[in-house]
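Attaching the record inline, Q. Sequence:
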Amino acid sequence: MATRKKTLDSGECLWESGQLGQSEQHVRVATPEEMAEVDAALGLQMISIRLQKGLIDALKEIASYHGIGYQPMIRDLLNRFARSEIKTILESRLSGLEKEPEEPPMKPVDDFVARLKAA
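Structure, as predicted:
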């Protein structure tokens, strides 16, 4: 059975407008066990990284402007960068393979074939 989103008269979704799920009664701190469960479900691993304070402030400002958290934004940026770099590396490797001769010459085999032809 499909669920229906509750909407305002304007058609805006109550959840997306912030009228549902953002009150104090709907907020609590997750337990460590719940956080571990979420991390496992999303395939996340906690790391520690040191960044310049000014960079963190700038990232927080950018994320705030876009209405998202700065940590998910950083995760998205790193994912995009990693995919792009892997693509570049694979294209470079493929290009290198295309430039190599199909089979390297085999002197002992070539000598053997030449002797057979001479006989």
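The chain has a mean pLDDT of 85. Residues 70-99 form the longest helix (30 residues).

More tomorrow.
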